[in-house]
Amino acid sequence: MYKQGRSLVAVMAASVMLTLTACGGTTDHQSAAASEAESISATSDNSLNSTSTEESNKDVTDASSESSSSEQEGDEDNVPALRDCVEQKMGCRIGCAITGKEPWDIPLWNLVTTHFNAVTLGNELKPDSLFGYSNGKCPGTQEAELNGETITVPVLNFENPEKILNKFVKWNEVHPDREIKVRGHVLVWHSQTPEWFFHQDYDKTKPYVSKEEMDKRQEWYIREVLTHFTGEDSPYKDLFYGWDVVNEAVSDATGTYRTDNENPNEDLSNDTHGNNSSWWHVYQSEEFIINAFKYANKYAPADLELYYNDYNECIAKKREGIVALLKEVKEQEGEPGTGTRITAMGMQGHYGVDSPSYTEVETSAKAYGDVVGNIQITEWDLSSSDDYDGSPEAKEKEYEKMRKTYNLQYYALQSVQNSGVNVTGITFWGTVDKYSWLQHRSTVGGGSNKEKAQCPLLFDDLYKPKPAFWVFAETN
Question: What is the pLDDT of residue 432?
Answer without folding.
Answer: 98
